[in-house]
């Protein structure tokens, strides 16, 4: 997959020659609804025998519009993760447009001229709710007016299940409840975060449950505080693990949030290793224990739950 970063105004020489099928969207999470849009683009690209391109942004548009909050500054898939996934989804060319004030100020017609026609789109594929400016003048219903017949338009309807739309908003709500089984269903894969193994206070080792303390990328959303059935990929191998997301209040108030994975059937030091962590199921919410012995007893029960989950 060829990745091209564009800053407005871009140079025409940055754009490869030849027609493409162009898929549009921010695609935070790359859930099954997003995959449906990409699948439509892939089908169209095969029919026309042209490369499949996708255009997204380096950051959420709301950041430029000064609507900063945790909902949009922590992603289900940050840009590096999105790039990795899109390569697996068969994208040939990925355009990452820097969402700046100058770009945000583009009138809809100029956006279409510069970023759809300018990228040699033979066909443009969007979700039903895609916008490229104010909704009242820049939604998919207005796109035919701006296209002026220069490209084919394909609008993909929402993916609904049990009367609910598969959406990033719904996934964030499930993460806030620790509903990882539902998150897996909506994504079509387990929820993943990446991190580096760093030194902690080694308390888990003293308790008989040594943990890998993970420093997670800052712009990635974590699920609700709790203890989870997980898998961890380290040294080119997957291991079953139980992972705590929390503040370790048993050992004092005001501690920072940590992600600590107790890797089952594993021994060895992995400090400095980059790992991939998959969340499968919430075992329990975080609680403050009265003693270390009480915590050890609960950890033993958590380990049993984890082992039973994986059969």
Main sheet specs: 6 strands, parallel
Order of helices and strands: EEHEHHHEHHEHEEEHHEHEEEEEH
Oligomer: single chain
- Low-confidence residue ranges: none
What is the average per-residue confidence, as pLDDT, rounded to a whole number? 91
Kindly report the spatial arrangement of strands forming the biggest sheet.
1-4-3-2-5-6
Q: From the 3D structure, determine the CATH topology of the largest domain.
A: Rossmann fold
- Helical proportion? 25-40%
With helices defined by DSSP (H or I, 4 residues minimum), what is the helix count?
11
- Structural class designation: alpha/beta
Number of strands: 14
List strands and helices in order, with pairings.
Layout: E1 2-6, E2 20-24, H1 32-48, E3 52-57, H2 61-64, H3 70-73, H4 79-88, E4 93-97, H5 101-104, H6 108-117, E5 121-127, H7 143-147, E6 152-156, E7 160-161, E8 164-165, H8 168-176, H9 180-187, E9 191-198, H10 203-207, E10 212-216, E11 226-234, E12 237-246, E13 258-263, E14 274-285, H11 292-309
Parallel strand pairs: 1-4, 2-3, 2-5, 3-4, 5-6
Antiparallel strand pairs: 7-8, 9-10, 9-14, 10-13, 11-12, 11-14, 12-13
Protein described:
There is one protein chain. The chain folds into two domains: 2-165, 3-Layer(aba) Sandwich (Rossmann fold), CATH 3.40.50.620; 190-309, Elongation Factor Tu (Ef-tu), domain 3 (Beta Barrel). It is 30% helix and 28% strand. It has helices spanning 32-48, 61-64, 70-73, 79-88, 101-104, 108-117, 143-147, 168-176, 180-187, 203-207, 292-309; strands at 2-6, 20-24, 52-57, 93-97, 121-127, 152-156, 160-161, 164-165, 191-198, 212-216, 226-234, 237-246, 258-263, 274-285. The strands form three sheets. Strands 1-4-3-2-5-6 form a six-stranded parallel beta sheet, covered by helices on one side. Strands 9-10-13-12-11-14 form a six-stranded antiparallel beta barrel. Strand 5, helix 7 (143-147) and strand 6 (152-156) form a beta-alpha-beta unit. The radius of gyration is 22 Å and the shape is elongated. The mean pLDDT is 91.
